[in-house]
Design goal:
This protein has helices at 4-17, 41-46, and strands at residues 23-27, 51-57, 60-65, 77-81, 87-91, 97-101, 116-122, 127-131, 138-142, 169-170, 188-189. By secondary structure, it is mostly beta strands.
Length: 199
């Protein structure tokens, strides 16, 4: 897992170089890194916005976003976890790149573009990328106020996503087996789904 100083280095890099730059493109095609979001879902949520603030909660970096077209309501928060070997790479409009996160070894291989697992393109020509050779990082959206509610991920079952969570449970509550926690006795979700209902 990334150590806190590495995550803080990545957070401070985003704070110093990526805030208040208009997002014009998002590459979220890596469905493993952006799970449970489908390709295009992060792009649709972020294009036209700006990153307005960035903070760290544990080992997750949170970036708040602005509204679209002058809307004062803030957008969703972007959660980035570096995984074991991920780094944030931010490119300036002139092409100068800066890295933050895991340490870059002297004998490290050259950066390959296909190892950029998630990329944000800015209107000024720069970009922000989650570079992760081992593909262990994670990028997800969260509803607003994620800084105070760390579990507020936008899930496939939320109205923002357009899909539904599984709704049936299997098993029933009972007493846990010896040596197991009470959580192991809770019902488990199955893979079945039913259509979304309007709220």
């Amino acid at each position: 897992m990334p150590e806190l100083p590495e995550v803080e280095t990545a957070r401070s890099l985003i704070a110093g170089r990526a805030l208040h730059r208009t997002i014009v493109g998002v590459d979220d095609a890596d469905t493993y890194v952006t799970r449970p979001h489908t390709p295009g879902q992060l792009r649709d949520a972020l294009v036209g916005r700006e990153l307005t603030a960035v903070m760290r909660r544990g080992k997750t970096i949170w970036a708040g976003t602005s509204g679209v077209d002058g809307d004062p309501a803030p957008g969703p928060d972007l959660g980035i976890h570096l995984g074991m070997s991920g780094r944030i790479v931010i490119t300036a409009p002139g092409g100068e790149a800066a890295e933050g996160g895991g340490p870059r070894r002297r004998d490290a291989q050259p950066r390959k573009r296909e190892w950029d697992r998630f990329t944000i393109e800015f209107a000024d020509g720069g970009r922000l990328a989650l570079f992760d050779k081992r593909r262990l990082g994670r990028v997800r959206l969260a509803r607003g106020r994620s800084r105070s509610r760390p579990g507020s991920w936008i899930s496939p079952g939320s109205p923002e996503s357009g899909t539904c969570w599984p709704t049936r449970r299997s098993g029933r509550p009972g007493s846990p087996r010896p040596g197991r926690s009470a959580a192991s006795a809770r019902p488990r979700w199955t893979g079945s789904t039913r259509p979304c209902r309007p709220r």
